Task: structure prediction
Amino acid sequence: MNIVLGNDVLPMSEAFLDAFTVILVVFGVLFIMFVLISLSGKIFSSTASSKKEAPKAEPAAAPAPAVAAAAEEEFSSGTLKLKGCDEKTAAMIMAIVSDNTGIPLSELIFKSITLVEEK
Result:
């Protein structure tokens, strides 16, 4: 059996061989592109992770008390009035509220915490 293409006549076996060769070339190019994309992804992710890890590798120096106080004032959102409870209990209450609501503690604003006595 023969295939007629214009004025050329190809035997069926040669046509299948040509088709198979084209399919192999296409899949070969796709595989090479896959390998190149995978390698570039790994290269870029390793350079990004090394940039992130570089600051963590350096030991942090202990901040001076004056600097720490200035940093705390920067994130302060007002004053908290404690009525009948100590700071440790108030901190525990704020942490529990933050955990139960899913809102970060830095986004919550507490105006006052009052101890309520049961009668």
The two ends are 104 Å apart (CA to CA).
